[in-house]
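Archive transcription. Copying these from loose printouts into the bound notebook so they stop getting lost. Printout 1 of 2:
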Amino acid sequence: MGVWMRSIAWDDESQQLKIIDQLALPGELRYLEINSSAGLADALTSAAVNGAQASAMCGAYGLFFASREVETRDPAVLQEAVRKYREHIMAARPTGYCLRDLTARIVHQADAFEGEVDDLRAFYFRAAQDAAEQNMKAQRAISRYGAELIHDKAAILHHGNSGGLAGVGNGTALGVIRAAHEQGKRVHVYLTETRPLLEGSRLTAWELEQYGIPYEIVVDSAAGYLMRTGQIDKLFFGADCAAANGDVVNSIGTYMVALAAYDNGIPAYAAFPLSSVDFECPSAENIIIGERDQADIFSLQYRGLPAAPVGATARNFALDVTPNRLLSGLITDRGVLYPPFFRSLSVLRQFGREK
């Protein structure tokens, strides 16, 4: 494979975390240089960083920043400060399972750590670095396994943003598409805009430009038409998290495109690392779907004019649930899983998802 972009990277010289600012795309490739827990929290809150894996990795580095900023020689005081910071960033991303799970595991490991304060700070840094490297390896594996599902001259529909911007570098579903492209397969990608944050037209399209992969943008509501008229071979998307039965939570609108794919006999695949699976959650119906600020909707314009009357109100759902029955397969870092998903996922859990 070619060189993958590193959307989140630690700079040893400046002791800063460098992150591609998603809010500046597609017009400008700009890096945020973050060296504080507050700066990291701002990036998460503003959606300068977006995507389940990217948010989780940034959260891990945020724990390190928080530990570095505490002026104490008492490990217990440091731990309490880190816990409070974790609660703060979780409030910014209440539905972020990967963020919640990764930061909880790191803090739990730190609770059992024996050593001086400086040693504990070093632990938090190593934990963030290790998490980023593991994420890169997982996404490379996803790309490798998933590329085998794509045939030459495939027409692919992609929803949301599942590329390098949503992770550390490779991405998930978009990484699969790029891997197939680099194998010499001629693919054409149809991108939904993925409103209201326009993750598809702003971010995914920008990434495909970098890779030289041909694409066309369609409005979200055109996806069903493309599938019904036989213009799509396969549907791919990522996942913020998944339940133990294979239900998937992803960007709002995923359920609609998956339903249209199912109705038209088009294979639909969700791509995500196994670390995204909440094995304690039997189905995604138990997952609370949050709402974002309605300003995201009202910031959209039509020919330079407001797209809604002054004083209008809106509901801005961030995510939705795609039931496992609509999915043909789950592309994970341990291979492609097929129905019944609860069985294949339980086997992987039994053998350890971190292996």
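Printout 2 of 2:
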Amino acid sequence: MENIQFQRSAIDASGAFSSAWEQVKENYGTYLGAAVVCWIMLGCFSCISWFLMGPVMGGIFYLASKGHRREPVEFGMMFEGFKKFVPLMVVGLIQAIPTIIITIVNLGMNMGRFGLLMSNPEAMRQAQRAGEIGGAEAAMSIAFLVFYFIFLVISAIWGLITYFAIPLVMEYDLSPIAAVKLSGRAAFANIGGVIAVVLFAVLVGIIGILLLCVGIILVSVPVILVANAIVFWQVFPRQDRPDQYFAPPPPGTYGFGSPQY
């Protein structure tokens, strides 16, 4: 689909989370089940989750969008993303690039330390006694902290660019690259709203922690997942239902009465 339009400065973060809470309450069991399965598939399978993130989140978006349009929802809808597995997997991998890089860097550093230790254990023990290892590790830790801070900033920008990419593939069948490009343009046109969404998500997460931590999965995750779908529809309103967004004003709105003849 070409010429997909998006709205600028269209995000109402508080409205999205309020609507998400009401939507979750109406079909709580369905959304809770989807959130639990999402958490298991993306949080418990290590590197495999990089390949599953796109299809899983695409299915969550499909389920949440159905509920947002007041259509019947059922648990099985969360697997709809697997019908577009390859493009959604690619988008998921693109989104995960910062995580993949930091994981590789961590792994490389750990393997480097282990390799030095195993290559000459006696020399390593002597260096430790002389304090050489401690100084080298301190310098390495400082360098890593600087690198990690810079990387957090880059990751935040990358997350902003790819924020709408999975829904765009799911809804409009865009190619991964086209989805990322359009997502970046729409996100930067709504950057204040996206930041507000992140802050609201943090607040909802804190509320979940206060609810003996179990509230994170019981409340926070379902609401955040649904809110993200609602935010997408705020920025990309459905073109097939213009009346939903542009209702004509009632007669007399502009101060004109009925025509006189």
